[in-house]
Amino acid sequence: MKIFSFFNKVKTWILSDASVLPLLILLYVSPLPPLSTIKFLKDRVRGFEWLPNPLKDKEYGYFSNSFCELLNTIFLSHRTGSRSVLVEEAERRLRVLEGELDILDYNLGQIYQFISIFTSIVPSIIVSTLIFVNFDTSILIALALALFSLFASFLGYTIYPSELSLKSSLRTLVFYIAVIPFYFVLRFFIKTPLMFSILICSIPSGIFSYLYLRKRLREMDLTMDRLRMTVSAPFNIFKVLKIKPSRLLEIGGNILVKIINASIYLIALHSEDKTAYISLERLYTKYYETFRKIRQKTRMMFFYSLLEAGITTAIYVFIVVTLMFLSSYEISTPIFMIPSGERLNQFIGILDIIFGLNSLALSILTATVREGNALYFPIYLPLILITMIVSYIVFFTYAPMLFR
C-alpha cells in the first residue's frame, strides 16, 4: 500500500507541475470566478480529480512548487476581485516557454555530449587499456557505465518544458511488460541473442506507442481547428462544432486539450463573449507553435541517438577484433596479458548486455527530450537496436581486414 501511495504522490506532483500553464489559460478566459473555475474542473472534467478543493483544502503537500504558487495567485485574485494577476502570470509563463527555444539547441548538444561520455568515450578508453591488465575489472566498469547511462538518460526531463509534455498511456507500459515472458522464451529457450530478443519484443509496443502518439498530436491539431471555428462561428458554437456540450468535456487526452475544451464550454454557457474566444485562440496558438518548433528542433536528438548507437557498437567491435588478432600471438607478460579465446567469448556475451543497456538509455533519452515522457521510449528502441545490429554485423565483417 505504501508503494502505491508513493506512486500516487509522484503522479500528483507531475500532473500538478504540467497543469500550471494550462490552468492559467483557463483562468484567463473563464467567465466564472477563479475558485469556482477550479471546482468546476475538479468536479466535471475527467482526469482532474487530483485537484484540491480550494474552498476546503488547506494543505498542499504533494503538489509542485509552481502549482502551489499558482494556488496562491488564485487566492490573491479571489481576494482582490481582479484577474490582472492571472493574466500577467499566464503571459509571463508563455514568454518563458517561448524563451526555451533560444537555448534548446545548446542544451541538446550538452546532454548528447554528457550521455556519450558514458556510452562510448569513457568505456572505450577504459576497456581498451585496462582489459590487458585486469580483464574482470574492465568488464565490470563497462557494465557499470552502461547502467549509469541508463539512469542518466532521464536527464532529458531537465531540458524539456513540463508544460509541453505529452501524456502517455499506461496501457503502453502494461503492453510492454506483457511481452516480457515472450522475451524469456526467446532468450533462454530459443537462445536468441539479447539484442535480437529485445528488438523482437519491442516492435509491437513501439507500433502501439507510435499510434498513440499520432493520436495525441492529431488531437492538438483538431483543437486548433476547433478554436478557429469558435472564433468565426456566427451562432451557437455547439452546432458549428457538431458536438454536444457534455461530450466536449469528455474528449481529449492531453491536459491542455481537456482544459481548452472546458474553456470553450464555460464561455459558451456562461458568457458567449467573442473576445474570450479570441484570447483563448491567441494563447493556444502561442502554445501550439512553441510545441511544434520544439518538436522540430528535438528531432535532431533522434539522429544523435542513432549515431551514438552505431559509434558505440563499432568501438566495442573494433576492440574485440583487435583482441582476437592479438590473441594469436604469444606476447603476454605477468603485467600485460592478452585475453584468451574463452575470455573473449565471455566478453562478447557481456557486450550483448552493454548494448542492451545502451539502447534503452538512448531510447529513453530521446523520448524524454522529444515528448517529455520516458514511456514513449518503445517508439525509438527498435530503430536504435537495428542500428546497433547493423553496425555490429558490418564491423565484425570488415574490421578484420585491417589486420591482414
Notes on the structure:
With 404 residues, the protein is an all-alpha fold. The protein has one domain. The protein contains 14 helices and no strands. It has helices spanning 2-29, 34-44, 65-80, 84-130, 135-152, 170-178, 180-189, 194-232, 237-241, 245-248, 255-270, 274-326, 341-370, 381-398. The model has no long low-confidence stretch (mean pLDDT 81).
List the helices and strands and how they pair.
Elements: H1 2-29, H2 34-44, H3 65-80, H4 84-130, H5 135-152, H6 170-178, H7 180-189, H8 194-232, H9 237-241, H10 245-248, H11 255-270, H12 274-326, H13 341-370, H14 381-398
Helix pairs in contact: 1-3, 1-4, 1-11, 1-12, 4-5, 4-12, 5-13, 6-8, 7-8, 8-11, 8-12, 8-14, 11-12, 12-13, 12-14, 13-14
Could you provide a short overview of the structure?
This protein is mainly α. The protein has one domain. The chain contains 14 helices and no strands.
Key terms for this structure?
404 residues; mainly alpha
Radius of gyration: 26 Å
Which structural category do the helix and sheet elements fall into?
A: mainly alpha
Count of the domains:
1
The global form is: elongated
CA-to-CA gap between the ends?
A: 63 Å
State the helix count.
Answer: 14
> What string gives the helices and strands in order?
HHHHHHHHHHHHHH
Mean pLDDT: 81
The helix content, as a percent range, equals over 70%
User: Could you list the spans in which at least 5 consecutive residues all have pLDDT below 50?
Assistant: none
- Secondary structure: number of strands: 0
Could you describe the largest sheet, including whether it forms a barrel?
none
Strand content of the residues, in percent? under 5%
